[in-house]
Amino acid sequence: MADDGSHPYLQQIPLTVSPYVSLPTATTLPYTYKSFPSTLPPSSTGEDADNPKPKFVVSQSGHAAHPDEIIASCHALQDHLRKMQDDAEATLRQWQNDIKERELAEKRRVAPGWLDREEKILEPVRRPDPDAQSENIMDMEDGGPVQQSLTQARNAEGEALDRAFGDLAVRSRPQ
């Protein structure tokens, strides 16, 4: 073994070549190969090269931004969402008020003046009539004129039925 500066113990280990392992070979470069310059040219996206805030947060799509810019865009998004929510709530409140106004207008159409007054319970008011009896009809012992008129109406109906069906004989069934 040649003494080329390797460790003496490594020189004692024999190397074996496996038929299943292929060692990498050096690639040959074409004659048209040009190496990269040591400095990169300015960006073609138009971003300012002397920007004091370096854009070191890079997304998967390749967009780069500074954390302050990301925070500012998040605040702008929050403001936009808050404004949209306020607009939606105002629209909902307006819609509910319109529904209440329509229902109120319908109630006023059905019963005009009812909702505009403070008294909400209707109570019948009797006007004292000097010619009328002071007694209550229900307190009368003989039933009063209402009871008498009902009895007369029933008798008249019965008489009409007797006149219509009076000549029919009622027969009993033989058993």
Structure description:
The chain is an all-alpha fold. Helix content is 41%, strand content 2%. It is built from three helices and two strands. The chain has helices at residues 8-12, 67-110, 144-165, and strands at residues 57-58, 64-65. The chain has a two-stranded antiparallel sheet. β1 and β2 (64-65) form a beta hairpin. The chain is elongated, with a radius of gyration of 55 Å. The mean pLDDT is 77.
The mean pLDDT is: 77
Backbone structural class: mainly alpha
Percent strand:
under 5%
Separate helix tally? 3
Query: What is the chains' assembly state?
Result: single chain
Write out the strand line-up for the largest beta sheet, numbering strands in chain order. Answer: 1-2
Please give the share of residues in helix: 40-55%
The biggest sheet amounts to: 2 strands, antiparallel
Spell out the helices and strands N to C.
Answer: HEEHH
Shape: elongated
Distance linking N and C termini: 144 Å
Number of strands: 2
Low-confidence stretches: none
The Cα radius of gyration reads 55 Å
Q: What are its keywords?
A:
single chain; 2% strand; mainly alpha; 41% helix; elongated; 175 residues
Provide a concise account of the structure shown.
With 175 residues, the protein is mainly α.
Give the topology, please.
Elements: H1 8-12, E1 57-58, E2 64-65, H2 67-110, H3 144-165
Antiparallel strand pairs: 1-2
